[in-house]
Design goal:
The complex is a heterodimer of chains A (about 400) and B (about 375). Chain A is mainly α and about 400 residues long. Chain A has helices at about 1-5, 10-25, 45-60, 65-85, 85-100, 105-120, 125-135, 140-155, 155-170, 175-185, 190-205, 210-225, 230-240, 245-260, 260-270, 275-290, 295-310, 315-325, 330-345, 350-360, 370-375, 380-395; one strand at about 40. Chain B has helices at about 5-10, 45-50, 60-65, 70-75, 170-185, 190-200, 215-245, 250-270, 275-300, 305-335, 340-365; strands at about 25-30, 35-40, 60, 80-85, 85-90, 90-95, 95-100, 105-115, 120-125, 135-145, 145-155, 160-165, 205, 210-215. In chain B, a hairpin with a 2-residue loop joins strand 10 and strand 11. The chains are: A mainly alpha (about 400), B alpha+beta (about 375).
């Protein structure tokens, strides 16, 4: 019973998983009897659906016009991002296919496919597409920016910085500033990069989407600086824009969870259970307050990880590591997942997964690659430093 | 061109789950020259391909799906090819059903494919939705006999060939059937009782005036060996012939004859005849018992592609089970035979009991009477 007492959600989970398992096993294919029975609701609202259908018809009618195809692909990518729905990335890829089969593939099609690949965490292939696009047209700002983002995720800060500089040469902009300061902040200039970017953002009256990205970047820098009030300020400013962004929701939720504010996290995420990263954070928050919905959400997460494993999808190892550590309480498996994730991507949150799992598994030596990376790159992050101190203490 | 920041944020929006990439679930079960299939395809994907939401209200109803079910089946099956070797199997769709998966409701398409040829190599050509969504995957579950394998089918490898005969793990199959053989001896009381009846007198030697006395161990050993070898040879012959479909007898005849064989041997113990005849009994009735084993083996579903391995494994299992029983029996019976009561209590009363039981079975099986518990 010790387990149940220490983990108030455990009983809920046990009951929920049982009920869920029964539900899944018992569920049998059936033949509905009522013609009016609604089987499925389509994800996009009516007007948007009709607009997409019109665009699709146009592309079908004029298959020789790249501009139409690119517009449709961009539309799908945007839907994929705002709804966290990977099917749209697949649709975009299909629309681009014709323009990628050419002897000299269409540069913009290459850039858009790079986004699709990046979404699937196929970083190497995405970078190859971007190189090719830039060989065709070195003034493709989008290609430089996407390239910088991928290089940053992979922990190659000097390369990211070079891409941002190339972007800045094409014209000073808020985008270029965010790109540069973000790379610099990771490469050992956290404090000064934060101050500079704060200045730029306070003066800017740019596009709301651009400002959203800038504010989220500032919030994350403030967190690394251990300035929670500032981080809160930037997160709230980003939310105030009213744009749908699962990324913003998930990072802000992580912040709230760290501040031991599960109730705020729950009210932030409650209606956003479609995206796995968001559902994971919601479930973690619900566990902290022993919320009755926690069991159902845990079962949902389990089913989703199983479904993505069934198709050989490896892009969720980071989240799965966190799920395995904090919900399944299996630090050894969580550590394996965290290290596999670390070999593919090296954001501060990826480092944190390894440190936490290594600490919980009582294997501080397993975190060695992360420690070496932090020393080599000069990455500063107050949360990681605290974890390192803990791990170091338990390791001696 | 304006730089789109959300493309960068898209990096992290790799959502799965309620929003997961498109998958279909294809289950195939190969049964000789037929393939039974079930294909679960997401309604959302079918809508994207065929436009199921006719009234454009954002909801797919059963009525909308039902009125298009022929179109759905035709569309799906046009994107799936099944062949036995090079011979194309004809696929017939069943009635459409509905089921739920993690990301919503799916149309369930049951189908049956006729190949007119035992499927030794299954060639599969999966092409569903790849033109609309290259990230679509077919999650295949292929079952044949007791073996199940899975595969993920994508645009680059939607054409696959599965060698159901050669690629099967013959060694594992052999082991599996070996275990079944042992299990069958363990629970097949009639074979055990038959052997027991034959072996009870083996530890005794016949003296003058029809009296018995305890024999030496080597004598008992050779007697047992003779009986068991004769039984094994006989049932192996008929088991093999029947399993390879050279001949077959109605199961009621076989089962009745097995009961009769036990009855005869048990009665024989009550009215002694010369030893030598027991080996002959063992051989003659062993032929009948072999047919009984063959029936069990055919119930287990001997896969066409590996009949021989299954047969060898099952037969070996039967012999192993039999050996184990004999090995336990011989020292025990030999020890007991030193006791004066062995003859009266163990041999006579035991055989009488077995004879009664076998008589009941014979009546039951021959006349189909529900008299008592039959194994």
């Amino acid at each position: 019973m010790g387990f149940v007492r220490n983990h108030p959600c455990a009983l809920w989970i046990a009951m929920g998983l049982g009920a869920f398992a029964c539900g899944v096993v018992r569920a049998e294919a059936y033949r509905p009897t009522d013609d009016a029975e609604v089987l499925e609701r389509l994800p996009t609202p009516g007007a948007e659906r009709r607009e997409l259908r019109a665009l699709r018809d146009e592309v079908k009618a004029r298959p020789d016009r790249p501009a139409l195809a690119m517009a449709l692909a961009r539309r799908y990518l945007e839907l994929g991002r705002t709804h966290s729905d990977p099917r749209y990335y697949g649709y975009a890829e299909a629309v681009l296919a014709r323009w990628l089969r050419l002897p000299h593939p269409h540069p913009e099609a290459l850039v858009l496919r790079a986004t699709v690949l990046q979404n699937r965490h196929e970083f190497q292939a995405a970078l190859a597409d971007l190189e090719e696009a830039l060989r065709g047209n070195p003034r493709l700002a989008q290609a430089w920016l996407t390239r910088a983002a991928i290089q940053e995720v992979r922990g190659d800060y000097p390369a990211a910085l070079r891409s941002c500089l190339a972007l800045a040469k094409l014209g000073a902009s808020l985008t270029a500033a965010v790109c540069l300061e973000s790379a610099l902040s990771l490469a050992g200039q956290l404090q000064s990069a934060y101050e500079r970017l704060r200045g730029v953002v306070t003066e800017s009256a740019g596009d709301e989407d651009d400002l959203l990205w800038a504010r989220v970047t500032l919030a994350e820098m403030a967190e690394r600086l251990d300035r929670p009030e500032d981080a809160e300020h930037w997160y709230r400013a980003a939310l105030a824009a009213g744009r749908r962004s699962p990324y913003l929701l998930a990072t802000y939720a992580d912040f709230l969870l760290d501040r031991k504010r599960p109730a705020d996290a729950i009210s932030l995420l409650e209606k956003e259970t479609h995206a796995d990263p968001v559902l994971l954070r919601l479930t973690l928050a619900e566990r902290q307050v022993n919320h009755p919905r926690c069991a159902g959400h845990t079962a949902m997460l389990k089913a989703r990880f199983e479904a993505s494993r069934a198709r050989g999808d490896m892009s969720h190892r980071g989240d799965e590591s966190r799920y395995t550590l904090h919900i399944l309480h299996d630090p050894t498996t969580a550590l394996k997942l965290a290290l596999a994730n670390w070999s593919a991507q090296k954001e501060p949150r990826d480092a944190r997964l390894v440190l936490e799992a290594a600490h919980a598994a009582g294997q501080p030596e397993a975190a060695q690659p992360v420690k070496e990376f932090l020393e080599r790159s000069g990455l500063e992050d107050a949360r990681l430093e605290r974890l390192l101190a803990d791990t170091g203490a338990s390791g001696t | 061109m304006k730089v789109l920041l959300w493309l960068v944020l898209a990096l992290w929006a790799a959502g799965a789950g309620a929003h997961k990439p498109s998958d279909s679930y294809l289950s195939l079960e190969v049964k000789q020259d037929r393939i039974e299939g079930r294909w679960d395809i997401a309604l959302r994907d079918l809508d994207y391909a065929l436009g199921l939401d006719v009234d454009d209200d954002g909801a797919i109803t059963w009525g909308e799906l039902r009125s298009r079910q022929d179109e759905v089946s035709t569309y799906a099956l046009a994107h799936l090819g099944l062949s036995a070797g090079t011979r194309v199997c004809l696929i017939a769709a069943g009635e459409l059903l509905v089921d739920e998966h993690t990301d919503g409701r799916y149309a369930v398409l049951p189908f049956s494919a006729r190949c007119n040829l035992s499927v030794e190599t299954l060639a599969l050509d999966y092409r569903l939705f790849f033109d609309l969504d290259p990230q679509h995957r077919g999650l295949l579950r292929l079952t044949e006999a007791k073996a199940t394998r899975t595969a993920v089918l994508g645009p680059a490898d939607g054409r696959r060939s599965f060698d159901l005969g050669g690629a099967r793990d013959s060694w594992r199959e052999l082991q599996e059937f070996l275990r079944e053989g042992i299990r069958h001896i363990g629970i097949g009381y009639d074979h055990l009782l038959f052997l027991l009846s034959l072996l009870l007198p083996a530890v005794l030697v016949r003296e003058a005036r029809g009296r018995w006395s305890a024999g030496t161990f080597p004598m008992a050993f050779w007697d047992v060996a003779k009986v068991v070898t004769a039984f094994t040879l006989a049932h192996s012959v008929t088991l093999s012939l029947a399993a390879l479909s050279y001949f077959d007898l109605p199961s009621r005849w076989v089962e009745s004859a097995i009961a009769a064989s036990i009855l005869v041997v048990a009665l024989n113990n009550l009215a002694p005849v010369p030893h030598g005849r027991r080996a002959a009994f063992a051989f003659g009735f062993g032929l009948v018992h072999g047919l009984g084993f063959a029936r069990v083996l055919s119930d287990l579903g001997l896969p066409a592609a590996s009949r021989l391995w299954g047969l060898v494994g099952f037969n070996l299992g039967v012999e192993l089970g039999q050996m184990a029983m004999v090995t336990a029996f011989l020292p025990l019976a030999y020890g007991l035979s030193r006791h004066p009561l062995y003859q009266t209590v163990v041999l006579k009363a035991g055989s009488a009991g077995i004879a009664v039981l076998a008589g009941v079975w014979l009546l039951e099986r021959a006349f189909d009477l529900p008299v008592g518990g039959v194994p």
